[in-house]
Here is the input.
Amino acid sequence: MIILSNGIRTEAVIFDFDGIIVDTEPLHYAAFQRTLEPLGLRFTWQEYIETYIGYDDRDAFRHAFSSKGAVLGQGELPALIQRKAGYFNEVIEAGVAPYPGVLDLVYRLKADKIPLAICSGALRSDIDPILSMLGIADCFDVIVTADEVAASKPEPECYQLAFRRLQAAHQNNFSINATIAIEDTPAGIIAAKNAGLMVCAVTNSYPAERLDQATFVTDSLLSFL
Here is the structure.
């Protein structure tokens, strides 16, 4: 168990990925545009922030088509997701930068033997290369991604799965109400809370007033411990 700077006690931590560990949102946006622009379905950065940032790739493509009155053909969605993933991997070859304090936090929690997981709406193929670049690929006991769940955030399925796997990896030696999720979006907060977790929201993507359903809100993970 650790005691956070605000006095909250936690026994395990589950990190969101995009918007918490790295600022990949502009990179995802660029990959979406490269995929959708030839189809006449591009959207603006403001639309991405307001609507798409909480979606996984499946729901993002579904919304991009439906919002323009376009028909997403049977079998077309997996091909779009694969194409976008390829563009994303090209974009990250230039390198990515972690958010301030996040690497030190991960290393500190790992050294203190706190069970750690990632619960993300991104694809596993998007996440693994970045974790390797940052040198933290071996720090997480469990990684749950969009590949493994039927419904994305705000549905709680991903956090429920991440918690079950993390608890199993540590012989059930911590409880769900002593586990905290670190999130940056309203959809992520709802998913984690409905799974029974405490939530630390970080104002990396939204202002504090949009994150008020979290257990607590912080401007930076530098102040987490």
About this structure: The chain has two domains: 2-23+97-223, 25-92.
